UniProtKB/TrEMBL annotation:
Keywords: Acyltransferase, Lipid A biosynthesis, Lipid biosynthesis, Lipid metabolism, Repeat, Transferase. PANTHER family: UDP-3-O-ACYLGLUCOSAMINE N-ACYLTRANSFERASE, UDP-3-O-ACYLGLUCOSAMINE N-ACYLTRANSFERASE 1, MITOCHONDRIAL-RELATED. One of its GO terms (molecular function) is UDP-3-O-[(3R)-3-hydroxyacyl]-glucosamine N-acyltransferase activity. Residues 35-102 form the UDP-3-O-[3-hydroxymyristoyl] glucosamine N-acyltransferase non-repeat region domain. It is an enzyme of class 2 (transferase). Its EC number is 2.3.1.191. This is UDP-3-O-(3-hydroxymyristoyl)glucosamine N-acyltransferase. It comes from the Bacteria. CDD domains: LbH_LpxD.
Amino acid sequence: MVDSRFFPRHSGVSISELADAIGARQSEPASNSTIISGAASLSTASVGDVSAIGSDTHPDLLSATRASAVICPDRFRVHVPSGCSALIADDVPAAFALAAALLYPDALRPVPPMGVKGISPEAAIDPQAHLEQEVTVEAGSVIGADARLGAGTIVGSGSVVGPGCCVGKNCYIGSGVSVQNALIGNGVILHCGARIGHGGLSGGQSGSGGNSIVQIGRVIVQDNVEIGANTTVERGTLDDTVVGEGTRIDSLVRIGQNVRVGRLCTIVGQAGISGNVSIGDRVVIGGNTGVGSHLNIGDEAMIASMSTVAGDVPAGARWSGNPAGPARA
């Protein structure tokens, strides 16, 4: 259920306004005046809520819902109960995502734990750091020499932005995040515990044991990237590690040194990307997938969860398995 302590209900929008915002078609224009102020699952929804039917939802669950509106494909219209407005959408998940974003805008961007704007007197900020207007740095955070924070950026409690690092405008750095040897673009979200720009395992074996190679590259995170909790992005060895614009990386993902992730990619939780991998634009990598080093993954490729990638993946390919290969139709 949605707990209003954490995510307060919206003041309300009419069903017609909601339909326009999400690009849905109304089944009952007479219901225009009904006010929608929240979102919920079919089984927990009540008056004032909008819900949605999933691809595997049984029609009986839809018929029993108490929601005021349901986003659904046209074929499910007949199962929508009386008093509930059907909002017909071709892409139900996308339409529901738009509705939820409209009703709970604060849930799209994390809220710092102290909830206070400005610089905490308990933050440690080097005199040579450069902070633009309306920056928030919470208690226990450390900002190093020559670090730069753009206007509107928030640094949650207990985080570290290392010397020389640059963080763009309107970024959110969650609690317990470390940013080292990195340049961060605008509108970036780093969730709690993310580790950006640390060194990783590199080098080879000799008779005396492992030999570490100095890592003197950077991490470049482009605009509007989101990186999940406890995800690690290692700095490059000689070249940079790059995460492209608009990419979303889930929690507990490992990005190795010198990896280049393209634009608008999605990498799901517990995936591991070995060093020196090149990933194209709009690639999707499923959870618990491992990608070997020195590989290329082409634009718009999709790799299923729990796959092991040991060879180059062509652009547009659909791969799965261990070792991964073309998925069966």
